[in-house]
Amino acid sequence: MVHGYANRTLYINLSEMRIQSKPVTEEMKKTFTGGRGFGLWLLWNATTPQTRWDSPENELIITGGPIGGITQYPGTGKCTVLAISPLTHTVCDSNGGGYFGPYLKFSGWDALEIQGKADKDVIIFIDGDEGIVRVEEAPLEVLDTHILNRQLTEMYAKDEEDWRSISVISSGQAADHIPMCGLNISYYDPKRKDTRIKQAARGGMGRVMRDKRIKAIVVRYSQMGPLSNGPAKPELLRKAGQRINREIALFDASQNDMRHTGTPYLVEIMNRFDLLPIENFRYGSHPDASRINGEVWKARFDTKYPDGCWYGCSMSCAHSVPHFHLRTGPYKGEAVRVDGPEYETLGAIGSNLKIFNPEDVLEISFYADTYGIDVISLGNSLAFAFECYEYGILNKEITGGLELTWGNADVALELIHQMARGEGFGVIVGHGVRFMKNYFVEKFGADPQLMQDIGMEVKGLEISEYMSKESLAQQGGYAMANKGAQHDEAWLIFMEMVHKQLPTFEAKAEALHYFPMWRTWFSIHGLCKLPWNDIIPESNKTAKEPQKVPEHVENYTWLYEGVTGEPIDIDGIILQSEKVYNFQRLFNLRLGFGTRKWDRPPYRAMGPVTAQEYESRRERYDEQLREAGIDPTSMTTEEKIRALRKMREERYEQLLDAVYKRRGWDQNGVPTLETVRRLGIDFPEVVELIKKASQQKN
């Protein structure tokens, strides 16, 4: 390791059974930095505009980043997974914790790219201690994560003391059948003597993995130490680490209590501000939400020992519920550990389905994880199907006798088990919201406009669990995100709705430039975002822009210089991200997407679709009409809905114009030639793409 880089990537072609080392050039570092940037560049060169998710040349890429793997600062154990997605058909990236990203890099590889398809199930084994890479025939029948990851941990370790040296990536049996499956990344918890998991869940990477006949990827590295990353200036790492660790020790308990509650603390806040999704995002609050809020989980989490998912992470927010007894499915009666639930889980399979029983939430969460199913896509897809059942678009004959009614946890579980078995109506739900919208129109005569309006997905990716009806900035954050509607790119709902910091289109556009670029930087470097803004330093009280947490931004400049030896400021950070972000936008353009028409959310993310929704917040919506100069007094509810919709859709188009201008894109959402030249990504194929897009528009 030299200053955060192994300076080579690992290429495996499963069709040819070929293993190859590729160099990382200085030009590659200069342009793409690492992490997601490296992954996009490798995938771009491996594929063509005709490549689809199940094409042999599509790659599964896993990469960390130059800062990732340090032990002096919390949240540095992330990896990013990339592929052309079976859900979105565009380039999708998903990040996950655990040990795999750092172990892969310390084993000598800045990225792993896997191409082709094996003839039979295989395991890829990367032994960083011995300097060996092997592709082996998979020896085990089981696919489900909670069993497989533990078995492989024991199988590939030298002895019990070596278990912590192993990290396993797998999916689960549902990934053989449905596209909404992600990857489970293991780490061994020596205090609890258990194999734990984190997820890179979004976009269907587990489906790509299983299509390539990969049962698991195993990495072994046992030489962990504070200098494993080869830092240039370790004193800067210590300086940053000491500052934030002191803040966590002093303030965490009185702020978000990440050490004991974790992200479930958000349930109460979102419910209070009418931002918690209820019934497929129809409503934003419910009186029963208190049954799954942070205090409920704080009492159930096993916090006897620290809960970090990487060495030295003092945030310790990777909580779990031990000894949970399952009541359904193939493991009925067994006691298991359930990792999480996180806030997104509680929003997706809890409040959005009106399932407020903690026992049911844990059962669904466990099976989603072990089967490899992304809970966000799962929850939104179930909620969409439940609402269609309510409207009579679906019936018991179509669903195989199942009553898809709100709060029906038994039906939700049966559909999940069907996804894992590859049978029944569950497989249709498991293909996601975009698929169901078209399927229900073609097969059951559903109204296409209604399907579009209530289908909570953008670009084929189901929307994260925040109600954005009243937050124009969050609507843009979801809909303009490169990979589809995911909060890790632009989470602006609090800035706009609670702190009232984005009053103008210009302010919104600036936020929708800065924050997606800032957040992209974390995926370039192998970092978790939670230490940035889930602990707040005292200096934030007098900061000019507190939403940016400037003291923590300074910490990251120290980390970058500490690892690489190169000084950087916030402008340099944003520039690194702009290169990667704009290149991903152009990659999507190459695949037939990446323009303005793909940047629009479903209307329910913008406003009330049905009379029922409008009437539930009538005073709010009537007042908004009056503010726009429209007297709602003599209007029917349907007329008011149409007037409000026209106003909100026009406002959203104005937002697109403002954001595109700020980002250096044309009015069709394509980066201009001037922008790509400024960023140094004006490769010949990129230039031709932009010129072609301009000609087609004209």
TrEMBL record:
- What cofactor requirement does the entry state? tungstopterin; [4Fe-4S] cluster
Source organism superkingdom = Bacteria
User: Which InterPro entries does UniProt cross-reference here?
Assistant: Ald_Fedxn_OxRdtase_dom2, Ald_Fedxn_OxRdtase_dom3, Ald_Fedxn_OxRdtase_N, Ald_Fedxn_OxRdtase_N_sf, OxRdtase_Ald_Fedxn_C, Tungsten_al_ferr_oxy-like_C, W-dependent_AOR
EC number from the UniProt entry: 1.2.7.5
Tell me the first and last residues of the signal peptide. Answer: none
A GO molecular function held by the record: metal ion binding
**Which species is the source of this protein?**
Anaerolinea thermophila (strain DSM 14523 / JCM 11388 / NBRC 100420 / UNI-1)
Its family?
A: Belongs to the AOR/FOR family.
Key word DNA damage present in the record? no
Keywords carried by this UniProt record: 4Fe-4S, Iron, Iron-sulfur, Metal-binding, Oxidoreductase
User: The Aldehyde ferredoxin oxidoreductase N-terminal domain covers which part of the protein?
Assistant: 5-223
What is the protein name stated in its UniProt record? Aldehyde ferredoxin oxidoreductase
One of the Pfam families matching this protein, by short name:
AFOR_C
Uppermost EC category: oxidoreductase
